Amino acid sequence: MKLKPRHLAWPALLLAAAMMPASTDLSAQGASKMHATGTAPAAAATPKAKPKAKAKAGKKVVKKKAKAAKTGPPPTPAKVLFGAAKAPAPLAARAIGFYAKGCLAGAKAIAVDGPTWQVMRLSRNRMWGHPSLISLVERLAKDGKANDGWNGLLVGDISQPRGGPMLTGHASHQIGLDADIWLTPMPDQKLSNREREDLSATSMLAADRVSINPEVWTQAHGRIITRAASYAQVERVLVHPAIKKAICEDKSLPRDHLNKIRPYWGHHYHMHIRMACPKDSPACTPQPIVGNEDGCGKEVNDWIERMKRIYAPRPPRPEPPVALPKPKPKPKPPEITLADLPAECKMVIGDTSPPGPSPVADVTQPDAAKSAATKPDDEAENAEPAASAKAGSKK
C-alpha cells in the first residue's frame, strides 16, 4: 500500500502526545481526548474566575491623595510679636518697608508732656516714631501755638516701639512715619493718666455725618491742618471729606498745599499726618506722590455725595414673616507673619537668623518735580505700590 502524507501524520501526533508533560490545563487534556475519541470533553467541574468589573463609562477613577503631614503649629502672627515689644530695637534709626507692611528700627518716643503737647492713651505704648517724625510733631505743636491760635496738640497713636502690625486698630502706622493728631485743642491743665485714657476726642461732624458742625469747627482747626500740610517732609494729611470741603471753602486759609490734604473715611476727630520716606531709610517703600490739583472740585464733591448716599435716612424695613438663614461669614484674611514683612524686620524684632535681601531695599525715592495721576481708590492709603513708586495716587 502506498503511504500518503496523512498516514505519516498520525504517528508523529501520537509521539508528541506521549512526550507532553502532565498538565492541569483542561483545554490541553480536552484536546487530546478529542483527537483520541473524536468527541468534546465534559465541562470542567471547577468554575471559571469572574472577570474584574470594568469602571463605568464616562467616570474617571481618581486616586485619593495622601494628606500632607503637618509640620507643626502655624507661625505666630506678626502683630503678636511686635505688640509685645516694650522698647525700641537698638539699631540705627530707619523706616523699613511700606506704611502698612513694615517695621521700625531705632525708634524715638515723644515726651509724654511737652510745652505745647500732651500724649493720649498712654497704655497703648504707641508714642514711638522715626526721630524725624517726632521732631516734626514737636515743631507743629510749637508753630501752631505761636501762629495759628492753637493751644497745643493732643497726640494720638504714632507707632509701636518697633513698629510692625498692631494688635488692634490701624493697618498702617507700621514704620514710624504716621501720626494721629486730635482735633481737640490741648486743655490748659495737665491731664491725669486716667483722663488720657477716658477723654473722648471731639467729632467735627454735624448730625447728618456729612457736613461740618459749625458749633465746634473754627478757623483755628483749618489753620493747624494747613500748617501740617505746609511742611516739606509731610506727604499727606488725611481728614474727613467734610473737613476737606470746609477748608476748601475758607478763602482765608493758605492755598499752596491743599493737594496734600486728602479726604478719607473716618478722620472726623483727628488728622492723620504721613511723612515721606526719610533719606536715612533706603528700605522704606514710598507712597505714590500726590498730584498738583487742590482736590477742591469734583473730587471732594464726589466724596460728599458718596457719604450722603451711605448715611441717608431710610424707612424701616418690615420684619420678614419667616426667619431667613444667616449668610455664611466671609473668611478672614490670613494674618501677617514675620515672613510677610521685609527681611530686616527679623533683626528689628530680635530674630537672630541672618536676614535675606530686602524686597524693598532698591525702591527709588519719589520725584517731587513730577506730578502723578489720580487714583480715587478708597484703599489707597494702605495699598502698597505694586511696581513703580512714581505711579500716581492722590489718596
Quick recap:
It contains 9 helices and 11 strands. The protein has helices at residues 5-19, 26-37, 78-84, 131-147, 193-198, 219-230, 241-249, 298-311, 345-349; strands at residues 94-98, 101-105, 108-109, 113-114, 117-119, 128-129, 153-155, 178-182, 234-239, 261-263, 270-275. The protein is 25% helix and 11% strand.
Polypeptide structure, described:
With 395 residues, this protein is of the alpha+beta class. The chain has a domain of 272 residues: Muramoyl-pentapeptide Carboxypeptidase, domain 2, CATH 3.30.1380.10. The protein contains 9 helices and 11 strands. Strands 8-11-9-10 form a 4-stranded mixed beta sheet, covered by helices on one side. A 3-stranded mixed beta sheet has the order 4-5-7, covered by helices on one side. It has a two-stranded antiparallel sheet with strand order 1-2. Helix 7 packs across helix 8.
| Tally of contiguous helical segments | 9
What does the oligomeric state look like here?
single chain
Outline the low-pLDDT stretches.
22-47, 356-380, 387-395
- Structural class call reads alpha+beta
CATH architecture of the domain at 89-313 and 336-382: 2-Layer Sandwich
Number of DSSP strands? 11
Return the CATH class of the domain at 89-313 and 336-382: Alpha Beta
Q: Helix proportion of residues, in percent?
A: 10-25%
- The coarse silhouette is globular
Query: Helix and strand succession?
Result: HHHEEEEEEHEEHHEHEEHH
Global Rg: 39 Å
Strand order of the largest sheet: 8-11-9-10
Mean pLDDT: 80
